[in-house]
């Protein structure tokens, strides 16, 4: 995804939180109001109190050590520190075939939509894809995935409503082998982090996949709803405890004013952000790009202070004088 799309995707977070930086930076000296305003901005973007405070402490230290006096200088350093905090790069896409990818997460986080978008990605790279509707709880869930399957031209393995999701995964894994499928993408039902039996069910789904296809699942992606911010992170922990999650999909970045939660994912969950979702179409999923992410958040606030605008060139042929 090019820079513009990232900026669009992050517009809400930028406007609600980081947009304030422009006026903060406009005020020249590094007063206590400046630092408070900066910390508030970071908290409002939902980076989490701990990260926000660490950033402020580090920035104050840097400004002392380097003798910085202007807001724009601090903003530059903030850019660097934010980028550095996104230390975990997305995992390289696994090369083995068949590849099994399982999507997990709380209710409504964006799993099914993400399953379709990931299918679209693999199709685009020339792989044969299959979808498994292991969400057998809601009758409408399989249907939703089948509609995506139709649109993508991809076979969807489903089960009876209320049936064992492990059985769906078993059938899908068998079908993957039988039909020489390259990538099997498993959509699971949403579950609350407190539902221990449903967490155990996820473990079973993973075990079943591994019994049919050795080494599977190769990717377990935890789908987080960016609009839930830090709250979503607290819930996510139960998933990383239950199964070997390999990475995070941050969905709904476009609807969120809490995109700053992205900065806490590495440190809190110990996981890389693999993809971000920024809309409802098949194209609206992108591999995570730390630089574009930080740029998208800070874009509009990187204004040149008034006194630094270049003086008009008196020799310019466009000069009015
Ligand atoms: N704006 C926006 N909407 C999204 C994004 N991803 C998902 N959605 C919407 O969020 C809603 C829920 O998405 P689903 O993919 O059905 O979520 P789910 O996790 O499968 O939900 P359950 O199966 O009920 O747990 C749908 O209306 C999606 O269109 C995104 O990146 N941006
Ligand atoms: Mg779903």
Question: Can you put this structure into words, describing what you see?
Answer:
The structure is a single chain. The chain is α/β, with parallel strands linked by helices and 321 residues long. The protein folds into two domains: 93 residues, Up-down Bundle (Four Helix Bundle (Hemerythrin (Met), subunit A)); 189 residues, P-loop containing nucleotide triphosphate hydrolases (Rossmann fold, 3-Layer(aba) Sandwich). 48% of the residues lie in helices and 13% in strands. The chain contains 13 helices and eight strands. Strands 3-2-4-1-5-6-7-8 form an eight-stranded mixed beta sheet, with helices on both faces. Strand 6, helix 12 and strand 7 form a beta-alpha-beta unit. Helix 5 packs across helix 6 and helix 11 packs parallel to helix 12. It is elongated and about 65 Å long. It starts with a helix and ends in a 23-residue tail after the last helix. The C terminus is likely disordered.
């Amino acid at each position: 995804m090019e820079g513009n799309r990232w900026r669009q995707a992050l517009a809400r977070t930028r406007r609600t939180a980081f947009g304030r930086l422009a006026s903060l930076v406009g005020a020249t000296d590094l007063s206590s109001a400046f630092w408070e305003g900066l910390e508030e901005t970071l908290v409002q973007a939902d980076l989490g109190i701990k990260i926000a405070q660490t950033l402020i402490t580090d920035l104050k230290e840097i400004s002392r050590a380097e003798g910085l006096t202007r807001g724009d200088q601090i903003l530059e350093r903030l850019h660097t520190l934010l980028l550095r905090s996104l230390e975990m790069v997305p995992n390289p896409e696994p090369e083995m075939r068949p590849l099994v990818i399982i999507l997990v997460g709380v209710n409504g986080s964006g799993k099914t939509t993400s399953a379709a978008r990931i299918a679209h990605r693999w199709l685009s790279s020339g792989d044969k894809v299959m979808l498994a509707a292991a969400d057998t709880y809601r009758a409408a869930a399989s249907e939703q995935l089948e509609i995506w399957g139709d649109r993508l031209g991809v076979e969807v393995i489903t089960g009876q409503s209320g049936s064992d999701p492990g059985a769906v995964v078993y059938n899908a894994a068998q079908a993957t082998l039988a039909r020489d499928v390259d990538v099997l993408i498993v959509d699971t039902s949403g579950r609350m982090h407190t539902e221990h039996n449903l967490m155990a069910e996820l473990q079973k789904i993973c075990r079943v996949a591994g019994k049919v296809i050795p080494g599977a699942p190769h990717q377990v992606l935890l789908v987080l709803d960016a609009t839930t911010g830090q709250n979503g992170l607290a819930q996510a922990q139960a998933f990383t405890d239950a199964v070997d999650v390999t990475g995070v999909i941050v969905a709904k970045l476009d609807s969120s004013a809490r995109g700053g939660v992205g900065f806490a994912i590495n440190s809190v969950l110990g996981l890389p952000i693999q993809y971000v979702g920024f809309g409802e179409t098949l194209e609206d999923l992108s591999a995570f790009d730390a630089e574009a992410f930080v740029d998208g958040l800070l874009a509009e606030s990187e204004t040149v202070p008034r006194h630094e605008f270049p003086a008009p060139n008196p020799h310019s042929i466009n000069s009015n004088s």
